[in-house]
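Reply to dn_fold:

You asked what the input looked like. This is it:
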Amino acid sequence: MLKQFTLNAVLLFELIIFLLGLKICSPVKYDQWRALKNALRINQPLSKLEILIITAISSVGLILLHCLATQPIVDYDSLWYHLPIMARWYQEAAFVRLVEFTQPTGDWIAEQMGYYPYNWEILCTLFFMPFREDFLVTFPNLIAWIILGLAVYLLSVEVGAKRIYAMAASTLVMTIPTVILQVNTLHIDLPFASFFTASLYFGLLYNRTNSPINIFMFLTSLGMFLGIKSSGVGYAALLVVLLFVLEIRKLLQRKSYTSVTKTKFFNWLIFGSLCLLWLGGFWYVKNLIDVGNPLGHVRIQLANIIIPGTLDLNRLRATSLAYIFEPQNFSHWRILFKQAIVLFQIPFLFMALQIVLMVRVWGRSRSKIRFDYLFTLIVLLILLGFLYWNTPYTAVTYTATGSLPSLVSSTVGQAFRYGISMFSIIGVVAAVGATLTQTRETGVVAIALLSCLLGIVNHVIFYIARVQSAFKTNIGGASVIANNFITGLKSNPGEAIIQLMDVMGDNLLDFSLYTGFYIVVVLGTYYISCKNFDRINVSNLFIPRSLGQLSVTVILIGLLFTAINTTREKRDIQRTEVYGGIYKYIATNLKPNDHIGYLLSNRSYLFYGKNFNQKVLFTPSYSESLSQWLNDLKQQNISVVAIGPLEPRMMSNREIPWLQNPNGPFTPVFGQDLNLGSMFYRIKA
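and this is what came back:
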């Protein structure tokens, strides 16, 4: 593959796309501001309560932006395979595959990772290029979070929900702990759900308006989530079938819609189809060319057609709730509900309550609800639930030997992120339910504001828990911290509070600043709205021209650069605090041509260095001979071998005693505890 994944090539490509967009849009004459208001359904002035919701969720967004700019990434999957793959792409300027995620290594899950679709990782890698580090690398996830909120809001209004309920539902979905915790990770479940919901919205919008631009947006969004996650094939099939049924129903009813010339329709259809194939098909075609299977190592059987693979789908299904969960087993229910309480909280419970209350008034309301769309969403929700229940890894994950546990584990909570698409549909149905039941608006807004505050609290607490459990003292996740705190309050409240503050450490100041900022902004907005206006016209929110747009632009650019420099400095401090001195050691003691060999580690990303100067190679021993392994390392110009942190399943590997033997050919030069961090061993001269 041509090595063209560079900053210059990306800028050139983006310039071409920009010029193409100008060419397409130039013949169209319209008021851009009016078009934006129409698209966002804000033609009518915003009420005070709506302004409060917008202010609250915007404040949460700003706080999340600061968090992702200053907090280093700590979650397991991101450090294990998302970020290392991106780092290698950045080094090679090409979409290469990492050996450890493609070749037989005894880990049948890792062997498949090299064949995942990686559209979202490509987008995130773009943020390596201007900074030459991982500053703002998860910024696309913040955009996906916003897209999810907008899609839920617009879809709710499209079905017929009142605007304020649609805004509240969007806010509740965005602040569910499972959702908001994905923003500062490289997990792809949030962007997957965002484009799934956006695709659904554009599909319904096309069904109502017959506008070809919407079929283009539908197909493009479809391509995006197909290229983000391989399970998107099933989700895409659902949307296509549902839209097809709605279109057949429209034809049978012979309704009158906006007339569109066939030429214009087919132009947009072809353009959208090309985007679908490009965005959604790239990785599957690449896999087909490389290994003869669009899904990598997964064995595919369609009727009499069999595409061979080493990984059987039945083995994947065996990790799902459908296979493991036992309805008659009380312990399974206890684990499921315990995780749900921690990771769903008030936003999900309130939305579920609205759906239950909606049943009482179903069909009796005279509101402008599109019941055909509502029924479609309910059917879709049921089908999504079925897909989630059968999704691999929703119940358990593999063991060291490749066998599967027979009981549901706590990983069921981590797998809730696979169901974010369901949460978005639940939010839409809840907004419609609130409209039908005419739920008190002030109560709905109060719940939305509280959910925003809890979203901030959850984001900070869960991040601290991740850092503590993964890099420091193995105290467990956020649920363990919460349980210990509650238990301590019963016996010794003062000691429990001191222990909690000790766990939070330096993050206590950030926690106070974030919550204080949110409360001040919301209360200030409420005070100003009560004093100065009843309703706000959005078009009046622009900066007056008398201030001088050029001056304001210059000031904003200056503030932006100041903020970037400040947050980058804080991120450096946080990296050292969380990752230890690994970056400093690499920068001080290793030259760019010193290759690092690694094995038995889920944090190989850290070995690339802060600025990705080191080449990192997967170098386990493929024989029982130490001398043979040493020869292999020297042939690859390996000067340092990195391992750890070690998991229980790694303890029996033959390389560990070779590295730790004081009389052997390796000298430890960095790190102390393989249970919590990584260690470097230099090959003796």
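Residues 51-451 form one domain.
Hope that clears it up.
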